[in-house]
């Protein structure tokens, strides 16, 4: 299948952002504010769901837990991947049925497992013996899936070290779950956040398929495949459009796993990132010396106030100013806090207008995911990131 590629230059506007632009043109804020468009979230959900076909979307709530987003996706038919009791309570409060919520964190407090079980949650993730033991005690008879460590991820943000077990351990965990009265129904994995091309999934799916078929050959009737997240958003580099991207992933799943009874997908970034933008402000433009090649541009938002994903410069946000018609030059971009780690981009400087001055407005695109929840509650006295949902 030939992929349809979303091609945007660094200063272009993705289609999902046009309503945001109209709002931001007229709105003014006295501190950094994330604006999220629920219509854009719904549109991205439909595009991904169309490509995923029979796979059921469970939104990764941690990407952005705004109640309006949960309500929007619930109305569209989504399920939810919750990482904590608070996220479960949020989804239930918005009217989600317990059968549409999975407790996908493999590191859970026993009391929270018990809470989820009492609330009617029946599906839990695990990747270690002790986690299976906890689930067996506090959620007897629950459905479980085993998360696997996968290698060869080419995602911008790999996620296979802290979570998962090595493939060679999976069968023992499945057997342990069954022996303790649980229902081990499948496996899960995460290809890595911001996997920009569908073809990058192939080697990861190959690894998971080996475990899947080995388990079935050993007599374990697996019926659930959780393919996790990894669906990308636009941050300046071209990404494949969501419908053909998801369709390619599902074609590779069918080729390796056959007709699986239940397939889950857990997009987070791919659903909400492009639906949000942050309105920020320049605080200072300076050079460290008269011979310094690069200006330093300090914004009123940084790593500790929502832009934590600039760590190691992994996620390259796009910046729009009212001076974009002017000549540009490279600059080091930094946040406002007194922590020296609060530098956003230095190894690869950002092109910004040469006339940029304190007080100028900056809009940061594709900020709908992993910003509001990463913001500190008040480091240096700076307030948490404001959120407006339209």
Give structural attributes.
single chain; 390 residues; alpha/beta; 8-stranded mixed beta sheet; 10 helices; 22% strand
What report would you give on this structure?
There is one protein chain. The chain is α/β, with parallel strands linked by helices and 390 residues long. It contains 10 helices and 18 strands. It has helices at 18-26, 38-52, 67-76, 85-93, 110-119, 129-138, 170-179, 202-217, 242-257, 269-272, and strands at 5-6, 33-36, 56-60, 79-82, 101-103, 123-126, 143-147, 183-188, 224-226, 239-240, 262-265, 276-286, 295-299, 319-321, 328-334, 343-353, 361-364, 386-389. Strands 2, 12, 13, 14, 15, 16, 17 and 18 form an 8-stranded mixed sheet that branches. Strands 3-4-5-6-7-8-9-11 form an 8-stranded parallel beta barrel, surrounded by 4 helices. The longest helix is centred in the middle third of the chain and has 16 residues, at 202-217. It is elongated. The protein starts with a strand and ends with a strand.
């Amino acid at each position: 299948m030939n992929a349809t590629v979303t091609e945007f230059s660094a200063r272009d506007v993705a289609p999902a952002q046009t309503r945001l632009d109209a709002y931001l043109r007229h709105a003014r804020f006295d501190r950094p504010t994330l604006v999220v468009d629920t219509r854009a979230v719904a549109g991205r959900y439909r595009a991904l769901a169309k490509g995923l076909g029979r796979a059921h979307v469970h939104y990764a709530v941690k990407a952005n837990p705004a109640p309006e987003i949960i309500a929007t996706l619930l109305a569209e038919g989504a399920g939810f991947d919750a990482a904590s009791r608070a996220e479960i309570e949020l989804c239930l409060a918005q009217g989600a049925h317990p059968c549409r919520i999975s407790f996908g964190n493999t590191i859970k407090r026993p009391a929270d497992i018990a809470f989820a079980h009492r609330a009617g949650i029946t599906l839990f993730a695990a990747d270690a013996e002790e986690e299976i033991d906890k689930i067996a005690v506090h959620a007897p008879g629950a459905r479980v899936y085993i998360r696997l460590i996968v290698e060869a991820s080419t995602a911008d943000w790999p996620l296979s070290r802290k979570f998962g077990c090595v493939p060679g351990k999976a069968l023992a965990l499945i057997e342990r779950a069954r022996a303790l009265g649980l229902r081990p129904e499948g496996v899960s994995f995460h290809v890595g956040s911001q996997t920009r091309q569908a073809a990058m999934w192939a080697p990861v799916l190959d690894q998971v398929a080996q475990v899947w078929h080995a388990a079935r050959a050993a007599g374990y009737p697996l019926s659930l495949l959780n393919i996790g997240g990894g669906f990308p958003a636009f941050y300046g580099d071209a990404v494949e459009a969501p419908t053909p991207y998801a369709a390619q992933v599902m074609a590779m799943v069918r080729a390796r796993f056959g007709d699986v009874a239940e397939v889950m997908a857990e997009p987070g970034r791919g659903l909400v990132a492009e639906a949000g933008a942050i309105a920020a402000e320049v605080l200072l433009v300076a050079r460290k010396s008269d011979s310094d090649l690069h200006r330093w541009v300090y914004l009123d938002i940084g790593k500790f106030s929502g832009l934590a994903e600039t760590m190691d410069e992994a996620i390259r946000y796009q910046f729009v100013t009212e001076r974009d018609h002017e000549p540009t030059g490279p600059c080091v971009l930094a946040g406002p806090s007194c922590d020296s780690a609060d530098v956003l981009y230095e190894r690869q400087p950002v092109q910004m207008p040469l006339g940029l001055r304190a007080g100028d407005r900056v809009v940061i695109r594709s900020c709908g995911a992993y910003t509001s929840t990463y913001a500190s509650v008040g480091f240096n006295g700076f307030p948490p990131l404001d959120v407006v949902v339209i």
